[in-house]
Specification:
Elements lengths: L3 E2 L5 E2 L17 H5 L20 H32 L15 H13 L7 H12 L7 H5 L3 H9 L1 H7 L7 H54 L6 H30 L4 E2 L9 E2 H6 L8 H26 L2
Antiparallel strand pairs: 1-2, 3-4
Helix pairs in contact: 2-4, 2-8, 2-11, 3-6, 3-7, 6-7, 7-8, 8-9, 8-11, 9-11
Length: 321
């Protein structure tokens, strides 16, 4: 997955249905659990103490790193394309004619040159060859967008730029300037996006550290209770309360993440299509096979494990062991 940037400097991506997810408190009532008729008198911790692998966050970090590499590759490609175009000699002003009639005509003209039919101008051919050898040569590009060179030029750099390029089928000074300027804008936009992804990777690492600490404390509490001999009721009550505190920690982490989701570093949207705006996090995780909100999903998994542990500890209290 990668982004597209039109003439207005807004990213262009594939559509994805928005989804909402919330993390709610998982606290439960000890008295209700302890009064269950099926309460057991012994607590077996095998499996309960197992470490939570944090797979959702781990996979999210891997996905972000892959996307960041693609975005950086596109940044480099547009910078190289701009450098190559800026080094070309434009056609003399006297040899250029007014632009054709609109973006559609521009694409038809450029397509004709690209296919070897119609206008045969060496300058325009060099522009198309430069685009083919830089942007279009990226391994993921054709697979994701399946566009011709003229279609990609119009989508990435704007149909008005393509129209200027198609002016009499040659490279005018104005068309050259527009291509270089828009290409550098496309590279700068990808640089900003890659930096935002880097911030997200750092955030994922932070949540991974926080949740690992929560899960480590959960396991140590259970290991401690498992080692208690004799009447362990007081110890079990203390552990139950501490587990309740860990649930509160999960709620706090979830709230922090939700605030981040509500205030993303940028939005990703097709040009002029406000209804199709996608948040930064939907852009990153919407097309993946994992959950759209991996941090919240990870918190829910750990909180669910804590709730299960609390239920078992409550059963041990009810049994009097």
């Amino acid at each position: 997955m990668s982004v597209r940037q039109g003439a207005a400097g807004i990213f262009r991506i594939q559509s994805a249905d928005p989804a909402a997810m919330e993390c709610t408190s998982l606290s439960c009532d000890l008295a209700a659990i302890a009064s269950e008729p099926g309460a057991v008198t012994a607590l077996v911790f095998a499996g309960v103490v197992a470490f939570v692998a944090l797979a959702y966050i781990r996979d999210a970090k891997a996905s972000c790193r892959d996307e960041q590499r693609r975005v950086r590759d596109e940044q480099d490609a547009f910078e190289e394309f701009a450098d190559r175009v800026s080094g070309l000699d434009p056609a003399p002003a006297s040899s250029t004619a007014p632009s054709l009639d609109g973006p559609a005509a521009a694409v038809r003209t450029v397509s004709a040159v690209d296919g070897g039919n119609g206008v045969d101008d060496v300058r325009l051919r060099r522009v198309l060859a430069a685009y083919r050898d830089t942007v279009m040569s990226l391994p993921h590009y054709r697979e994701e967008y399946d566009e011709t060179i003229p279609e990609s030029l119009a989508a990435e750099l704007g149909p008005d730029t393509a129209a200027a390029l198609a002016s009499n089928g040659t490279l005018s000074t104005g068309a050259q300037s527009a291509l270089v300027r828009r290409s550098r804008q496309a590279a700068d936009a990808r640089s900003s996006l890659a930096d935002a992804i880097d911030t997200e990777i750092d955030a994922l690492s932070g949540y991974e550290t926080d949740l690992t600490l929560v899960d480590r404390r959960r396991r140590r509490l259970l290991e401690h209770l498992d080692g208690v001999r004799g009447d362990g009721t007081d110890a079990a009550i203390d552990i139950w309360r501490r587990l309740d505190g860990l649930e509160d920690d999960c709620d706090e982490i979830a709230g922090e993440r939700q605030r981040t989701l509500d205030d993303p570093p940028m939005d990703v949207a097709p040009p002029g299509e406000e209804a199709d705006r996608r948040s930064f996090h939907e852009y990153l995780y919407g097309p993946t096979e994992g959950p759209r909100y991996p941090v919240l999903a990870q918190i829910a998994e750990i909180a669910g494990r804590i709730r299960t542990d609390r239920d078992r500890v409550a059963s041990r209290i009810a049994g009097g062991d």
